[in-house]
Amino acid sequence: MDTIAVILARKNSKRLKNKHYLKINGKNLVQNTINFATKLNFIKEIVLSTDDKYFLNFDYGLNLIKIKRPKYLSTSKSSSISAIKHVFTKLKNK
């Protein structure tokens, strides 16, 4: 069985505004997370689930699966589990 890394990046953070755009060592939070996942040998697929057009359109230079998260799963009250279920439903349909 292959291992899939699911990276959740909701656009509007409540506590720290625009936290995904903050740069560490010249790369934003999403790029750093994706780079970390690529270094893990047991990860076979990386999936990014986001409602942010910037990250959906960004060229990561990798074989990365990008899934647009719907608005109802992108609120501050939405659970991560619901977003992950959405990812696996989308993957199953592909």
Name some characteristics of this structure.
24% strand, alpha/beta, two-stranded antiparallel sheet, three-stranded parallel sheet, 94 residues
In short:
With 94 residues, the chain is α/β, with parallel strands linked by helices. The protein has helices at 29-38, 53-57, 80-93; strands at 3-9, 23-24, 27-28, 43-50, 65-68. 14% of the residues are buried.
Model description:
There is one protein chain. The chain has 94 residues and is α/β, with parallel strands linked by helices. A three-stranded parallel sheet has the order 1-4-5, sandwiched between helices. A two-stranded antiparallel sheet has the order 2-3. The longest helix is centred in the C-terminal third of the chain and has 14 residues, at 80-93. The protein is built from three helices and five strands. It has helices at 29-38, 53-57, 80-93, and strands at residues 3-9, 23-24, 27-28, 43-50, 65-68.
